[in-house]
Amino acid sequence: MKMKFFFITEGLSAPFDEGLKNVVFSLYKQLEKKENILLITKAGNNTDGMEVMKIGLNKLFLNNKLRLLIKNHSPDIIFYIPDSSCTFNSFLRAKVLKLMGKKAKIAMLRIQHREYSFIQDFLIANFLRPDLLFLLLGESDKNFFLKRGIKVKVLPPAVDSAKFYPATKNEKEKIRAEYNIPPDKKIVLHVGHIRQTRNIECFIDVQKIENIQVVVVGSTSTPRDGYLKDKLIEAGVRVIDEFIPDISKIYKMSDIYVFPVIKNTAAIDMPLSVLEALACNLFVTTTRFGGLADYFKEDYGFRYFDTTEELIALIAGIDRVNAHNSKKAEHFTWDRFTNEIISACEELV
Q1: pLDDT band at 270, cuts 50/70/90?
Q2: For labelling alongside 90, which of 59, 170, 183, 294 has CA 20 to 30 A away?
């Protein structure tokens, strides 16, 4: 028998070109196939083509229309994915949803690290605990919440293997021709926000490596650092900050993926771009960010670095033999991701 899900999130709005939005959209597409689901998001979001109800949500979700929707839907599970990824205010909103839902169980998904003050920590542990908190990786975060009496489920990451897969030589050359990049260049790729907090200034030095072309694709749905963008372009980096309907093409024309983020609040705990790069069989060089080191060990095709000097040495030493990375992403499917959520929610009800 299907459960009744009341799925609420502020983060459902096209274009889906960054981590949180991709998680929300991909999970919704899978859940609607498997369960009885009512999807709610805030008024003004771009949701063309989706069966969704939009409501004017304030900071605390104090809304009579929302209360009546929950009452009439009578859900088994209220599933909340905050676009701020479980700040203190997110826990307050979850508590409001819990009170509106009465008998419904409240589950939340946290995909990015957040810090709490002493008072906030106390209130979350004693008054604002959800029935279940899903974490997209992060063993330290798991232990943090378990110590506060919150039931926690760590989820595996996921990637769309029907979209992200290794390109043939001809396919790679064709895409490169579209972007006017010579076939003999090694393309070093990064996909993500163009911000100082993501440590992407390192690509200025990477671009100096002989026979390298760095390509940085920035999200169109978040503000970008114009000064940083100009510095990258001046150094010869190809910056693409327009919406690309099929981002997989950019991966498929590339050779090496670099994830240089250090600050733990600058990206989701399991960067989807790393999984997408693996699925497309790119060489991957990354910092030990979030839960990456919990899932992936170093080998020839997957390497960790701590400094720009280490990164440059790694890139300079990579040739174009098979990275053997695509198999690493085979088990990380959205179907599996969704089934783990459903199983955990079934245990609640």
Answers
A1: confident
A2: 294
